[in-house]
Amino acid sequence: MEEKKKKRSGLSWIEEILSEEAAPLKDIIKEGRREEEKPKAKEEISPIVPEIKTPSKPVLTEDRGGTSLQDILKSTRGSPSVPIPTYSGEEAEVLDVYGNVRILRVKGEPIPIYEIRLPKLSEEEEKLVKIVRDRAIAEIQIDPESIPDPEERRRIFGRAVKNIMRELAPAISEARMEVLVNLVVQNMIGYGKLDPLVRDDNLEEVMVIGTRRPVYVWHRKFYMCKTNIFFDDEREILNIIERIARQVGRRIDQQTPLLDARLPDGSRVNATIRPVSLDGPTLTIRKFKKDPLTIIDLLKYGTFNLEVASLLWIFIDGLGVKPANVLVAGGTGSGKTTTLNSLAMFIPPSERVISIEDTAELQLPIEHWVRLETRPPNIEGKGEITMDDLVKNTLRMRPDRIIVGEVRGPEARTMFTAMNTGHNGALYDFSVIQLSDSRFVLIGDLVEELFKKYSDRIERYKDLEYIVLEEKDRFEVVSVGADLKAGKHVVSRVWRRKVREGEKLMRIRTRTGNEVILTKTHPFFVFSNGDVVRKEAGKISVGDRVAVMMRPPKPPQRKALVDPNIYVGISDYYLVPNGNGMVKVPNNGLPPENAEYLLSINSNPVKLVREVDGDLAYIAGVLLGDGYIASNGYHLSATFDDEGYRNAFVNAISKFLPEYSPQTKISGKCTVVTVGSKIFAEMLLRIFGIPKGKKSEVWDVPDVVLSHDDLVRYFIAGVFDADGYVDESGPSIILTTKSENAARKIWYALQRLGIISTVSRVKNRGFKKGEIFRITISGVEDLRKFKSLIPLHHSKKVAKLEEILKTKRAYRGRRTYRVPISGEMIRPLRLRLNLTVAELSKLASHYAGEKVSESLIRHIEKGRAREIRRSALKGIALALQQVAKDIGDEEAWVMGKRLQLIAEGDVYWDEVVSVEEVDPRELGIEYLYDLTVEDDHNYVANGILVSNCMGTIHSNSARETIVRLESPPMSVPRIMIPALDVIIMQVRFNNRKKGTIRRITEIAEVSGIEGESVQLNTIYKYNPAKDELYHTGVPSRVMNQLAEHTGLTMDELLEERVKREVVLQWMVEKGIRSIEEVGHYIREFYIDHEELLRRIERDASIELTEKVRTVI
Q: Considering only CA atoms, which of 535, 312, 504 is closest in space to residue 423?
C-alpha cells in the first residue's frame, strides 16, 4: 500500500525505473520478446471509464518479425536537445534529498541546484510517446474537468493510455511502460515537463523563462533554485500555456499576449508570449499552499515576535469598539498575502468578513466569510469586473470587515472613502450648520429642501436615504483639517433617516455653552494625552475635551447688494431725477436704474437702498436688540437709555429719511423714538427679515449682514448698544436673548472677528418657565478686541468698558487660549533628546518670547498641571524640534511638530460639562440628518466640530507607501490617508547566515497631516544586525484611541495584550500551527478567554504558567 501511494504521488516512480538495467526498446522489438513480467494484479474497475474508440489493427505486432520500430516511426528529428547537466564529486554539496529530488550547492553557482532525476528516453521511446499521446487525444472521449480529483483523473487517463501503448509496443516491460504512460498523461492533462515540479509541495513557484534555459523554482526552504529541466522547443511551452488558458476559460494570443489566472486548485498562473515577451513564452506558476502558513509559523520563522503579534491582534480586534484599518505593504514575494492571511485570523468570529482579490489566495477559518474575485473582460472586451467595482459593491453588503487582497488602482480611493465614512451617526434637524460663505442654516431645512428638489433621485441604504448632489448644487461647509487648521470643503451627499423605534439621542453641552444633539454613534474629535481621537457621542464623558471652532476661515468679503425685486409694490412711486428735480414714476415693477427714492401718497420719501451699509446694519441691530416693527407695519420704534446711543440711531435714520424727523417721547429714564414710515419699515423687513410685532424668540442674525466683516461690526454694535450690558465684576460684556439661533450666530460672528465668546443656556428667572441664552465676552484680551472692533455708541457702556481696560490686567490663562496637557506629551520626548528641564526651559523661553519656567515643565511632567498657554506650548514645541533637527532624529522632530500644531490650531478644546440621554419624541424630532463632506469629513454643528478595511500594497517603506497611495493610478486624496491607522512593511532579503528570509521591517501609525506631508509614527523597526524587531519608544496612537473608546487604562490595555501573547506562546510551545487548529483557539479566546487561559495554565510550561497567572 505504501508503494502504491508513492506511485500516486508522482515523486518515487522514476526511482524504481532508473535503478534497473532495461534493454533498449529497439532490441526488445527486434528480438520479438518481452522481458519477464511480474504477475499483474487485477485492476480495480472504476465507475468512470473513458470511452475508447475501437483502434485499427496495430502496425507493430510480433508476426512482423524483423520490422524495427525505426522503420515504423518515420518522422523528422527535432532540434538537438539541451544536454542536462549532472553534478557529482567534490563540486557538489548535497543540501537535501527527498523522493527523486536532490538540492545541491554547486561550486561556481550563485544559487542552489534543484536536481530532479528524469528518465532517459531513447529516440524511439520519444517517438512512441508522441504517437501514443496523439492517439490518446483523439480517442479518449472524456472531459478532464468532469473528474475533479486530480489523482483520480490521472489514474483513469493512465489506464486508457496504457491500453493504447500495449497495442503499439507489447514487448515493453511493465515498469518501463509505467514511465512512458506517466509521460503521456502529464503531457495530456498535466504540465508536461513541469508536472513533477508542480506536484512537489516543497515548491512555492515554478518559473519558465524561455527555451534552452533552465526552469527556476522557489523552494520553501532553499528559496530561489535553478533546476535541471530545459525546454528545447517553444511549442512545448505554448502547449502548456494554451492548455491552462482553456482550463480557465481564457485566451492568450498575439492580440491578448498576457494571461493572469487562478487554476481550480487555487494556484496562480501568469504567462506571456510574443510580442510582449521578447525571448519567447514565459510561465510563472505560484502554487496554492493547501496548508497555509499561520501566525504561529511566522513567529517560528522570526517574521514576528510575540509582543508585536499580540499587539497587532489587539489592533485588528479593536476590543469591540474601534478595529484598526491596516495596510500590509512590501515588494513582490515579500510575504504580504501570508501576513495578511495570518493577521485576518484575529478578526472576531462574530463579524461578517468580505474579501476582494484579483486571484483568490486567502484562506481563513472564518464562518461568515464572503469571497469575491475580479473578472477580466471576455473576448469581445466586455464583462470586466474590476477591484474598484467590487469594493463599491461590498459597501452595500453590510460588511463588518473588508479585506482587499491587493491595492493598485482606483479601488484605493474607494477603500479610503469607506474608511472615512464608516459610521452611522446623524444630527437632529435644529442643528445650525456653518457654511463657508458665512451663512448659517439649519441642517434639517437644508437637507429637506434638497430632498424635495431630488425627489426622483433618492437612493437608499438600509434605513438611510441619501442623494448625490450634482456639481451645481454642491456647497461648502466650514471644516478642520488634520493639521487642526480651519478650511472649507464640499458637501457631495446629504442624508436623512427616521428616528428608530426606541432610539435615544445624546445632548452634549460644553463649558463655553456650545450644545449639540445627535445620535450615539456620531463621532466627536476629542483631545487625549496629546493626540486627537474620534470618539462617539455615546462614549463621551463629562470632563472630555472636544474640538470647538475658535478661528473659522475668513469668509469672502462680498458687497451686500439688495435684490431690486424687493421694491416691487413697496410704494406708489419711484422718484427719478430729471435734471431739474425729481419725477414720479409709478411703481409697477422693478425700479428704474436711476431711481433714488420711494414715495407713497401722504408719506415722506425713503432712500432706495442698492447696497446695505454700516448705518443700515446698525439700525437693524438696534431694532432686533430692543426695538420692533409694529404688527400693522406702519411704524418702527426703539427705546433708549443713553443719549449717545439715541443720537447715533436718529442720525442713521435721517440718512434714509432725509425729510423726516422721528418722534421722541420721554418715558421715565428712557426715551422712545418712533419712525412713522410704512415704506421704511417694509424695506427693513424685506432686506433683513425683521419680523413684525413680537420677535423675542424668533429673531435671527440676517444673512445679509454676514456678507462683510464691516456689516458684522455695525450690526453687533447695534445689538449690544440696545440690549447688552457691561459686568464690571466679571469683567465681561453680556447679551441675553430668547432666540437660540440668534445667540449661536452672534457667537460665530464674534469668532469671525477674532473675539472669543461663550453661549450658555440659563433659566429665565423673570418668568415661570422658559430659557434664555446668554452670550458672554470675558477676559481683558477679548474685551480689548471688542472695544477696538465694535463701534459702540452707548456712552455709559463705552465708559465702563474703558475703565475695565484701564484697571484690569490681561489674564493669559483664559481657557480658550490654553490647551490640555499631560506629562506624556513632553517628558518622553525631552528624555529622548537628552535635555534637562533647565535646558528645555531656557530654549522654550527663547522661542516663545516669554518665560517658560522650569517649575511649569516639572508640574506638567508630574501631572500637576492640566493646561498650558498656547504660546508656552509653541515655545516648547519649537525648542524640541530644533534639537531633534540638530541631532538628525526625524521621528522626534515629527513629535515636536505635532505639539506645535496643537498650539497653533484653529480649534480650542472645550470641556464637556453635561452629557444626557434624551428622547427624540419628547423633543418633537422625527428625522435625523447628516452630510458627506469631501476630504476632511467633518463640519461645524452648533459650534462643535463633528465627524462624518485591510489590504496589501507593493512598496518598500511606510513613507513610500504613502507616496504610492497619493500618486496615480491610486490617487487617494492626502486628507483621506489619516483614516488609515497602521502600515506594516515587509521585505524579502538575503541574510548571510540564514539565507533568504522574510521580515517585518517597520510598523508605522499614521498620525495626521503636517503641511504638505502625511505624518508617520514608527513604533517598531527592524534591526538587521540582531535580526529582530524592536520598539522605538514612540507611544502607540492606536492604543491611545482604544483607551479613549473603551475607558480602559493603558495598564489594562497592556494586560489585554499579554493575554493574547499567552495564547500565541502556548500554541508555539505545543506545536499547534495548522490553520484549523490556530483558528479554533483564537475563536475559543473570543468565546471565553478566561476558560482558555485556565486551560493553558494547567497545560503550559512553568514559565508560561507564571505569565498566565498575572492576567487571570
A: 535
Q: Comparing C-alpha atoms, which of 238, 242, 272 is closest to residue 256?
A: 272
> For residues 258 and 252, is the Cβ–Cβ distance under 8 A?
yes
| Separation CA 1084–CA 703 (nearest Å) | 61
Q: Which three cell numbers stand for residue 445?
A: 431645512
Three-state SS at 537: helix
Span of 428-442, 490-504, 698-712 with lowest mean pLDDT? 428-442
The yes-or-no verdict on residue 742 having pLDDT over 50 is: yes
pLDDT band per the 50, 70, 90 thresholds, residue 527: confident
* pTM as predicted: 0.50
Please list the residues that pair with 103 across neighbouring strands: 96, 114
Q: Where are the domains of the chain?
A: 2-286, 295-420+950-1099, 427-553+908-947, 563-608, 609-807, 815-905
User: Mutual orientation of helices 837-848 and 870-887 as an angle, nearest 10°?
Assistant: 110
CATH architecture of 295-420+950-1099: 3-Layer(aba) Sandwich (3.40)
Cα separation, 449 vs 575, whole angstroms: 39
Q: Nearest 5°: phi and psi at 1061?
A: -60, -40
**Cα–Cα distance between 52 and 160 in angstroms, integer?**
7
CA distance 384 to 94: 49
* More confident position, 133 or 17: 133
Q: For 772, which DSSP code? A: E
561-619 residue pLDDT tens: 999 999 999 999 999 998 888 999 999 999 999 999 999 998 999 999 999 999 999 99
Condensed to tens digits (0 to 9), the pLDDT of residues 700-709 reads: 888 898 889 9
CA 799, CA 1066: separation in Å to the nearest integer? 78
CA 796 to chain centroid, in Å, comes to 57
By CB neighbour count within 10 A (0-12 exposed, 13-18 middle, 19+ buried), where does 1020 fall? buried
Please check whether residue 858 is in contact with residue 826, taking contact to mean a CB–CB distance below 8 angstroms. Answer: no
The domain 2-286 is placed in CATH, from the list 1.20.1250.20, 3.30.1330.60, 3.30.830.10, 3.30.450.380, at 3.30.450.380
Task: Give the chain's end-to-end CA distance (angstroms, integer).
Answer: 50
DSSP string, 482-507: TTS-EEEEEEEEEEEEEPPTT--EEE
In angstroms, the CA 839 to CA 835 distance is 6
The stretch 666-689 carries a mean pLDDT of 92
Residues in the chain: 1112
Least confident piece of the model among 69-73, 800-804, 970-974: 69-73
Whole-angstrom Cα distance, residue 852 to residue 842? 8
Is the model's pLDDT at 1091 over the cut of 90? yes
The architecture (CATH level 2) of 427-553+908-947 comes to Beta Complex (2.170)
CA angle 801, 805, 810 (to 5 degrees): 135
pLDDT in tens, 445-484: 888 999 999 988 888 766 778 888 888 888 888 777 767 7
Side chain identity at 265, as an amino acid letter?
Answer: D
Cβ-contact 612, 705 below 8 angstroms: yes
Sequence-ordered list of residues with C-beta below 8 angstroms from that of 471, at least 6 positions apart, any chain? none
Q: What is the DSSP letter of 335?
A: S
Cell of 1084: 475559543
Cell numbers 518501463: residue: 176
| CA–CA dist 1112, 1096 (Å, integer) | 11
**Lowest-pLDDT range of 537-541, 554-558, 1087-1091:** 554-558
- For 721, the enclosing helix (H) or strand (E) is helix 709-723
Beta bridge partners of 427: 518, 929
Assess contact for 157 and 185: CB atoms under 8 A. Answer: yes
Cα(636)–Cα(692) distance, rounded to whole angstroms? Answer: 9
Question: Looking at the domain 815-905, which fold is it?
Answer: 434 Repressor (Amino-terminal Domain) (1.10.260)
State how far the Cα of 1107 lies from the Cα of 1090, in Å rounded to an integer.
Answer: 14
